[in-house]
Amino acid sequence: MDNNTQDLIELRHLEIEDYVHLRNSMDKAYEQAGLGSWSEDDIRRLLRIFPEGQLCITLNDKVVASALSLIIRYDRFGDNHTYDQIHGNNTFDTHDPEGDVLYGIDVFVHPEYRGMRLGRRLYEGRKELCENLNLRAIMAGGRIPNYKNYAHEMTPREYIEKVQGKEIHDPTLSFQLANGFHVKKVLKNYLQGDVESREFATLLEWNNIYYQSDPKVLNMERTEVRVGLVQWQMRPFKSVEKLMEQAEYFIDAVSDYKADFVLFPEFFNAPLMSPHNHLPEAKAIRALAQFTEPVRERFQELAVAYNVNVITGSMPEVAADGRLLNVSYLCRRDGTYDSFHKIHPTPSEVEAWGMSGGDRIEAFDTDCGKIGILICYDVEFPEACRILADQDMNILFVPFLTDTQNGYMRVRHCAQARAIENECYVVIAGAVGNLPNVNNMDIQYAQSAIFTPSDFAFPTNTVKTEATPNTEMVLIADVNFDLLKELHSRGSVRNRKDRRHDLYQIKTFSPAEGTNGSASS
Question: What is the pTM of this model?
Answer without folding.
Answer: 0.74
